[in-house]
Design brief:
- The chain is α+β, with helices and mostly antiparallel strands and 145 residues long.
- The chain has two domains: 73 residues, GMP Synthetase, Chain A, domain 3, CATH 3.30.300.70; 55 residues, SH3 type barrels.
- The protein has a five-stranded antiparallel sheet with strand order 7-6-5-4-8. Strands 1-2-3 form a three-stranded mixed sheet.
- The protein has three helices and eight strands.
């Protein structure tokens, strides 16, 4: 588990480049531990921005290790279809299509109208519906190809 002051410092470094910290996850792929720092940016996230932030974060994390074991740092965009986990993820996705898996109901797709600390309002085929976070098993933005 990462300490809050490390998370806050990572957010400050990301913000210093004009981007926003979307989320941090620690993943294991094969035998590698990956510290994945996902960022968003008003004009989009490009490779140069990720590389610049990665260099700066590497310097900071070498002095302030975020986790005890060896890891590989990855800085990237959360992607066009990104997981929505925290309330601020939902709040930053207002106006976008979302796909939800709801307890005892299954999957629904609609447009996210609003979000607060308790839940969301989603428009499903012209009908607005309030859903509490506790009812949502899985959520992600949804892009129709």
């Amino acid at each position: 588990m990462m300490r809050n002051e490390i998370r806050d410092s990572i957010a400050k470094i990301v913000n210093s480049f004009g981007a926003k910290l979307y989320d941090i996850e620690i993943a294991t792929e094969f035998d590698d531990t990956i510290l994945r720092v996902m960022i968003t940016n008003e004009g989009g996230v490009n490779l140069d921005l990720c590389a610049d932030i990665s260099r700066e974060l590497s310097l900071f994390l070498d002095v302030n290790p975020p986790i005890e074991q060896a890891y590989r740092l990855e800085v990237s965009s959360p992607g066009i279809e990104r997981k929505l986990i925290k309330s601020h993820h939902f709040q930053s996705s207002i106006g976008e299509k979302v796909k939800l898996k709801i307890t005892e109901e299954g999957q629904v797709v609609g447009t996210l109208k609003s979000a607060d600390d308790n839940g969301i309002v989603i428009d499903i085929d012209g009908e607005e519906r309030k859903i509490n976070y506790s009812q949502i098993n899985k959520a992600r933005t949804y892009f129709e190809w």
